[in-house]
Amino acid sequence: MEQPEPAGEDARLPPGQYVPRGHPVIHYGRVPTFRPASWRLQVMGATASGEPHSFTWPQFSELPRTSVIADFHCVTKFSIMGNEWCGVSAATLMELVPPAPEVRHVMIWAEYGYSANVRMSDFAHDHTLFALELDEKPIAPERGFPVRAVVPHLYAWKSVKWVRAVEYLVEDRRGFWEERGYHNVADPWREQRYSYQEEPGEGPP
Ligand SMILES: Nc1nc2c(c(=O)[nH]1)N[C@H]1C(S)=C(S)[C@@H](COP(=O)(O)O)O[C@H]1N2
Ligand SMILES: [Mo]
Prior knowledge:
Elements: E1 40-45, E2 53-56, H1 57-61, E3 66-73, E4 79-89, H2 90-96, E5 105-110, E6 115-119, H3 120-123, E7 129-134, E8 137-138, E9 148-150, E10 163-169
Parallel strand pairs: 1-10
Antiparallel strand pairs: 1-2, 3-4, 4-7, 5-6, 5-10, 7-8, 7-9
The structure holds the ligand Nc1nc2c(c(=O)[nH]1)N[C@H]1C(S)=C(S)[C@@H](COP(=O)(O)O)O[C@H]1N2 and molybdenum atom (MO).
Molybdenum atom binds at residues 26, 74-76, 156-157.
């Protein structure tokens, strides 16, 4: 009898991607210095209460954590397979600071103004998380320490390193790369790389 193929790395690789030797680290700008006393993670924008909420480092680092094993895919075509992320799920964050019912999008903000927008349906996905650990160690500074967003089913520019704020949006807005010609949705399985590929309704008006 025919056995189904196990989901090996080839089956897990979206179109046009390859697994490189070693581990590329890429980001725009320099690695920020973590200052635990002044660090805050803000949840703002269209919250249900109408008020923003800030977590201090002791508060955020004590929230319940979950683990996710996921591959990640850079739009420049390399993929890093089998990362084990551990952190606070987006669902937990939304329970603690609920969005207003009309929220449809989220902007994730980093140090220095880097940002990425995701649809609420992608944010609310059960494997979207705010990771504090990678492969059972605190995330390395250049990979996003202390907190990195992980949205593994979208191209990796949506997985924002050095997260400082989550902004609930009623109307969609483009983030850093989305403003510079990259696709608003960014599904690697559909090769949604560039904004010129966007169909009506996939980007802000
Ligand atoms: N804050 C911030 N996060 C970022 C970026 C960035 O420039 N700034 N680059 C993104 C891009 S394009 C990629 S491919 C991944 C790279 O992650 P890595 O360095 O852990 O491989 O980080 C993403 N997160
Ligand atoms: Mo990337």
